[in-house]
Amino acid sequence: MNMKGKIHLHQVTSESLRLGALLSLVGGFLDTYTFVGRDGVFANAQTGNIVLLAVKAIQGNWGQALAHIPPLIAFSLGVFVAEGIKRKSIHRLTPDWARAILLLEIFIFFIVGLIPQGVPNTVVTVIVSFVASVQMTSFRKLIDAPYTSTVSTGNLRSATEAVYIAITTKDTNAAIRAMRYGVILITFLVGAFLGGFLTLAIGDKAIWGAVVALIFSFILFTEKEHKWKLPLSH
Q1: Could you tell me the residue range of the domain that residue 163 belongs to?
Q2: Which of 58, 161, 191, 206 could form a disulfide with 199 if both were Cys (CB 3.0 to 4.6 A apart)?
Q3: CATH number, residue 23
Q4: Is this prediction's pTM over 0.70?
Q5: Are strands 227-233 and 145-146 parallel, antiparallel or unpaired?
Q6: What is the DSSP string of 123-154?
Q7: What's the pLDDT tens digit per position in 54-87?
């Protein structure tokens, strides 16, 4: 009797390593873009903004201190928006929330690249912080473990913990998990280098580098799952 079966070669999901690596690259890119080109404010690392707010306030630089508050508010708002998008699932241009988030990022960052020089940097950093928050809130799992695509502290801790477990218990799964986190950390660093380099080289429009990475992410995410039908004889 002949039967037909399907072999699934791959399926890219919101938890895939390849997508996570591209989003991590975007995360590193955004932080150096705003820090180098937008008054030394972090887009993603809100811990840095809180610390700098306190430091500038202690130094009596109230104007610089207050500049770190809008990104904090925008970041919080981004969490609300991301959770709303994930729950409502009302997407006419794309089949699910993950693709909707990627399209939202692409659109907003493209517009940011068109903002003229006369507009205050605070406007840009607020927008970037908002979108970074949406990304971080939306993509929080890497295969079978939590991660963040916009900051590295938690990923570094998780990577180190996985390395320790792999060494002390000979756990293969922990070793694989450590390598995955390593990929995320490396791509974040690469993104930070690219963000700083492009910002110094071409200025405000450097953010379109993040747009390119997000377009690749969207294309990767929308790849159709390859299927082959093969005759199976019994």
Answers
A1: 14-223
A2: 206
A3: 1.20.1250
A4: yes
A5: unpaired
A6: HHHHHHHHHHHHHHHH--EETTEE--SS-SHH
A7: 988 898 888 878 877 887 888 888 888 877 776 6
